[in-house]
Write a structure and sequence with these properties.
Number of strands: 0
Radius of gyration: 21 Å
Helix content: 55-70%
Largest sheet: none
Shape: globular
Structural class: mainly alpha
């Protein structure tokens, strides 16, 4: 790839070929920012998730060091969460807060969501004082928030415009009520994710 290419294109070129080390060198050379660079790193970590053993370590560790050295705290956190979505754990307790099952239960109660739904997608510890996978729990909360938000929008789009010529029927009102419940659920899961990031 030529020198002036976008970081996303240059990194994706090598990832597609299964050549992850040049992709890592590319993201290390470019200036970290929240859009293209972050997307390029996410592409590299997705490629890393398919590797095993020493080969994975040789690629994952340089990416991890690069991310932990980022001066932008928010960018560092988001890159770690992007990687966690693909099964790559770049945070070993240096960035995200240390939380226990008791913390997760308390924050879930305050947000008004069921902690059992988190347990469907990641393994939760048995003891209240045992640590949770904070990154996984944040990703699950964000994913569920987006899921409910999309459901709410889909319902709203299937209801006639209240200011239009068509009158709202009974089933339309049921759909609007359901959309409001979905929106509220999305807000609750988003609140849980933010609370986990803040550390309670």
């Amino acid at each position: 790839m030529y020198q002036g290419s976008r970081v996303t294109d240059a990194a994706a070129f090598h990832v597609r070929r299964g050549d992850l080390r040049p992709a890592v060198r590319i993201v290390r050379k470019r200036v970290p920012e929240r859009f293209r660079w972050r997307k390029a790193v996410a592409g590299v970590t997705k490629g890393v998730s398919k590797l095993r053993g020493a080969e994975r370590f040789k690629v994952e560790e340089p990416v991890r060091e690069l991310v932990l050295d980022l001066p932008d705290v928010d960018l560092r956190r988001e890159v770690i969460l992007d990687a966690r979505r693909t099964g790559v754990d770049l945070d070993r307790g240096e960035v995200l807060p240390h939380l226990t099952l008791a913390d997760l239960r308390r924050l879930s109660f305050l947000a008004g969501v069921e902690v059992g739904r988190v347990g469907r997608y990641t393994k939760l510890p048995l003891g209240f004082g045992d640590p949770i996978d904070t990154a996984a729990c944040i990703c699950i909360g964000r994913t569920l928030s987006e899921y409910h938000r999309r459901r709410a929008h889909k319902l709203w789009l299937n209801v006639p415009d209240p200011d239009g010529p068509d009158a709202l029927r009974k089933h339309h009102r049921f759909m609007l009520d359901r959309a409001d419940r979905e929106r509220t659920e999305a807000e609750r899961w988003a609140a849980l994710s933010k609370a986990l990031i803040a550390g309670g």
